[in-house]
Design a protein that fits this description.
This protein is of the alpha/beta class. It has 5 domains: 194 residues, Rossmann fold, CATH 3.40.50; 84 residues, DNA polymerase, domain 1 (Orthogonal Bundle); 223 residues, Ribonuclease H-like superfamily/Ribonuclease H (Nucleotidyltransferase, domain 5), CATH 3.30.420; 112 residues, Taq DNA Polymerase, Chain T, domain 4; 141 residues, DNA polymerase, domain 1. The chain is 51% helix and 11% strand. It has 38 helices and 23 strands. The strands form 6 sheets. A 6-stranded mixed sheet has the order 3-2-1-4-5-6. The chain has a 6-stranded mixed sheet with strand order 7-10-9-8-11-12, with helices on both faces. Belongs to the DNA polymerase type-A family. This is DNA polymerase I. In addition to polymerase activity, this DNA polymerase exhibits 3'-5' and 5'-3' exonuclease activity.
Length: 927
């Protein structure tokens, strides 16, 4: 290779070390090294560096740090960054440790007094690209976006997504070469850059787009139309010029190390292992496969030394260990040895056996753990035994938990679960509330394979390990012969429970790897994993319901159903059971002779809701009345009656269970009670919501994303008129009606707006002309003309739909704007009806899934901000695009503002996210 080719092949990766330090410090919970030194930022930095070296290797690499707070910018503007508070006390000792981490990995760490890290990054990027190479900057700092170009891109270290020109335009409204002008106008309160008062990001972008660079804007300012903005531009022109000097990165400072000296090389394994062990980062050692030092960390409580867990794992893999035999731990000495092995390994799998599927009321029967493949044990705690199968010796629950607790809360030991939320709730009920850090194999699978298959342990084991685990039914029996797990003989329980932990650990080793391969790390790490504890806390808190109101509601529903039954009987001419599909089918198709009837495999007429809806749309009255009766019956049984039985007798609260790995799109679902299906716009739905109330002295606060899926459609399909409408805060349905039907916005006919609204929301779900005609009550031909006119006005939406269908057919999945894979079974079906359904799913999944991703991001943000806010507030429910909180009445408005801010800032897309809030004594008032 000649010298020119070598230069062109150079790929310099620059890590914004200073930027990542603060991000990691605030993102991770407090952690300490074995010596007691705070290390949460160090741990986050180490994990980031490990992942980068594995997934994003360039030819050259360096970490860039700030050398100090005083730089040339302070000479230009003494107030620059002057108002920034000192670094948090726990962060100060971590600065040096992070530099040690860089050295341990064999990566150059570079800093230069008098200059900021951003200036060094800019100068290195300029140098490598000037010689024909390219540069990746590991940072999402907006100040570095001015450097983006054909050979320079940023990489968000959290989302693991590149930031190129399109992302910069979405952020600033201008291309990278105009970012400096926008920043000079808008200023930056964080860094104390003055800018021009009253000019924000949108105003600055508009000025730059209209006039050009800053000099052109300031030159034109005196002649602009008189306004506050014009006056500010004239009076603060010098502030803008100073701001431009402050935000412009220096690209020509002397390089402390030549680029050739930054060539990538493998770290010195022994030195790296020693440093990681000194920090207590055993999970990193395990992930990197570099083994532990010969002497593991001293086990607690004087336990006997154990063999190295990494060696156990390596030996096990070499021998392809089978599943079992497993050990029943019945002495404290053996328990201590297992605990010590888990400490030494830096990670282990854990599973709980209980006497109930309701985690909030379940008691521990036993605990299993696995420290290496094939190496697992079960600790029986509350087995009852029998004359035929005596339990033998068991350990006291309190003593076992007392010994396990230091391991479970150790921030340097990773705890691996399958369906972690359940086990965390069980452990919390048993007295161990802060288990951290955790991984969840169910969610590791779900984050990368939603819709592709189920995510239960047995199914994952067969799929990934080729092993069919012992089934619960084979251990406890089925039907009337089923026995409680506490009555399962300990020997049999050990085989079953320890195998669960063993399988979970093996699944983790597989799924952690495929998570990277499928580029799903950000979805798991930023959304699914942190949400586990958020949802667990929500389930524990529950929400209060008004028992007397529910009884009144149930009685009223029963009375109305009885009246409906009388009306239906009169309509038919005789009595029959409205709840009997067989009797209803005979009346509709045998006696009344209505068309369209189809018999089921059992020979009875089909009378599901789709059949009845078709008949109702055709103008038949009886199916209409039956559908109304069924809706009321469902609301009575599912909510009015069921909620009474689900109330906690002591608190009057109900505790729904959030299902995290059910839907294809990432949406949460809930059961017992299912709060996702309460009708939104009906009187009955409103009455049910009125039964959800706040405690005395509190109120409920609802925060709901407005038209979020339409906003995502405008963003991902890049529809300029829709984007503009959202930017201007216009009525999107009226704007659509105006655009499609050529009708002025002023005095818009409500019927025309309604039709545009039906198309807007229908398009998201791939609505057909037939579906739209049924929804609006118009001929199919007219509905088809509406849809054709819609696509003619917004061809980008048709392009998006075609592109998404093609993506689904090619890959078997589509992705949300935030990287979540949503698999689409049936997309390659030969059957046209099934394939059409799959195509509609594919079109909707990025939008519904994107909305799910955004509200999950918001929930994670709020879970961190609420404790810092000082507000006595609880996040209680998440229902689709809505969050529901309970708060002390005096704090309600402050909480509403906090929720709105955090939810609207949860993601950045090309249109504003808007959140509507409400406050009330019950959910209906707040909603």
């Amino acid at each position: 290779m000649n010298e020119a080719s070598k230069q062109d092949a150079r790929h310099l990766v620059l890590i914004d070390g200073s930027g990542f330090i603060f991000r990691a410090f605030h993102a991770l919970p407090p952690m300490a090294s074995p010596d007691g030194v705070p290390v949460n930022a160090v741990f986050g930095f180490t994990n980031m560096l490990t992942r980068l070296l594995r997934d994003h290797v360039g030819t050259h690499l360096a970490v860039i740090f700030d050398a100090g707070r005083i730089t040339f910018r302070n000479e230009i503007y003494p107030q620059y960054k002057a108002h920034r508070p000192p670094a948090p006390e726990d962060l100060i000792p971590q600065f040096a440790l992070i530099r040690d981490a860089t050295a341990a990995f064999g990566v150059p760490g570079i800093e230069l007094p008098g200059w900021e890290a951003d200036d060094l990054i800019a100068s290195y990027a300029e140098a490598v690209t000037r010689d024909g190479g390219r540069c990746t900057i590991v940072s999402s700092d907006k100040d570095l976006m001015q450097l983006v170009g054909p050979r320079v891109e940023l990489l968000d270290p959290i989302k693991q997504k590149p930031i190129r020109e399109a992302e910069v335009i979405a952020k600033f409204g201008v291309p990278p070469d105009r970012v400096i002008d926008v920043q000079a106008l808008m200023g930056d309160s964080t860094d104390n850059v003055p800018g021009v008062p009253g000019i924000g990001p949108k105003g600055a972008a508009q000025l730059v787009s209209e006039y050009g660079d800053l000099d052109a804007i300031l030159a034109a300012a005196p002649g602009m139309k008189k306004s506050k903005r014009q006056e500010a531009l004239v009076n603060h022109a010098e502030d803008a010029r100073v701001s431009r000097r402050l935000v412009t990165l220096a690209c020509d400072i002397p390089l402390p190390m030549p680029i050739d000296a930054l060539a990538c090389h493998d770290p010195e394994r022994e030195a790296l292992r020693d440093w990681l062990e000194k920090m207590g980062f055993f999970s990193v050692i395990q992930r990197m496969g570099i083994g532990l030092a010969a002497t593991p960390r001293t086990p607690s409580r004087g336990a006997a030394p154990v063999s190295n867990a990494s060696e156990l794992s390596a030996n096990a893999e070499a021998e392809s260990p089978g599943f079992g035999p497993y050990e029943a731990v019945t002495s404290l000495d053996r328990l201590d040895q297992w605990i010590a092995e888990a400490h030494a390994a830096g990670r282990f799998a854990l599973d709980t056996e209980t006497d109930s599927l309701d985690a909030l009321n379940a008691n521990l029967v036993g605990i299993s753990l696995a420290t290496a493949p094939g190496h697992a044990a079960y600790v029986p705690l509350r087995h009852e035994g029998s004359l035929e199968h005596p339990t033998g010796q068991q350990l006291a629950v309190d003593e076992v938990l007392k010994r396990l607790e230091p391991l479970l809360v150790d921030p340097c030991v990773l705890k691996i679960f399958q369906n972690a939320k359940y086990d965390l709730l069980v452990l919390a009920r048993a007295g161990i509330a802060d288990v951290t850090p955790i991984d969840d194999t169910m969610l590791l699978s779900y984050a990368q394979s939603a819709g592709e298959h189920g995510h239960g342990m047995d199914e994952l084991s067969v799929l990934h390990l080729g092993h069919q685990p012992i089934s619960y039914d084979s251990v406890t029996g089925t039907g009337r012969n089923r026995i409680p797990f506490a009555q399962v003989p300990v020997e049999r329980a050990t085989d079953y429970a320890a195998e669960d932990a063993d399988v979970t650990l093996r699944l983790w080793e597989v799924l952690k790897h495929t998570l990277r391969e499928r580029q799903s790390v950000a979805v798991y790490e930023d959304l699914e994993r942190p949400l586990i504890k958020v949802l667990a806390a929500m389930e524990q808190k529950g929400i209060k319901v008004d028992g007397p109101e529910l009884h009144r509601l149930s009685a009223d529903f029963a009375r109305r159903m009885e009246e409906m039954e009388k009306d239906v009987h009169a309509l038919v001419g005789r009595d029959f059971n409205l709840g009997s599909p067989k009797q209803l089918g005979e009346i509709l198709f045998d006696e009344m002779g209505l068309p369209g009837g189809k018999r089921t495999k059992a020979g009875a007429w089909g009378t599901d809701s789709s059949v009845l809806q078709d008949l109702a749309d055709a103008g038949h009255q009886l199916p209409v009345r039956i559908l109304e009766w069924r809706q009321l019956a469902k609301l009575k049984s599912t909510y009015a009656d069921a909620l009474i039985g689900q109330m906690d007798a002591g608190t009057g609260r109900v505790h729904t269970s959030f299902q995290m790995a059910i839907t294809t799109t990432g949406r949460l679902s809930s059961n017992e009670p299912n709060l996702q299906n309460i009708p939104v716009r009906t009187e009955e739905g409103g009455r049910i919501r009125r039964a959800f109330i706040a405690e005395k002295g509190n109120v409920l606060v609802s925060a709901d994303y407005s038209q979020i899926e339409l906003r995502l459609l405008a963003d991902v399909a890049d529809i300029a008129p829709l984007r503009e409408a959202f930017e201007l805060g216009q009525d999107i349905h009226a704007r659509t009606a105006s655009e499609v039907f050529g009708i002025p916005l002023e005095g818009m006919d409500p019927l025309t707006r309604r039709r545009a609204k039906a198309i807007n929301f229908g398009i998201i779900y791939g609505i057909s002309a037939f579906g739209l005609s049924r929804q609006l009550g118009i001929p199919v031909g007219e509905a088809r003309r509406y849809i054709d006119a819609y696509f003619a006005r917004y061809p980008g939406i048709r392009d998006y739909m075609d592109r998404t269908r093609d993506e689904a057919r090619a890959n078997g999945y589509v992705t949300t704007p935030f990287g979540r894979r949503c698999y689409v079974p049936g997309i390659r079906e030969k059957n046209g009806a099934r394939r059409g359904y799959a195509e509609r799913q594919a079109i909707n999944a990025p939008l519904q899934g994107g909305a799910a991703d955004i509200i999950k991001r918001a929930m994670v943000r709020l879970s961190r901000e609420l404790p810092r806010s000082g507000l006595e507030a609880l996040l209680l429910l998440q229902v689709h695009d809505e969050l529901l909180f309970e708060v002390r009445e005096p704090d309600a408005q402050a909480l509403a503002e906090l929720a709105r801010r955090e939810m609207e800032q949860a993601a950045v897309i090309s249109v504003p996210l808007v959140v509507e809030t409400g406050i009330g004594l019950n959910w209906a008032q707040a909603h």
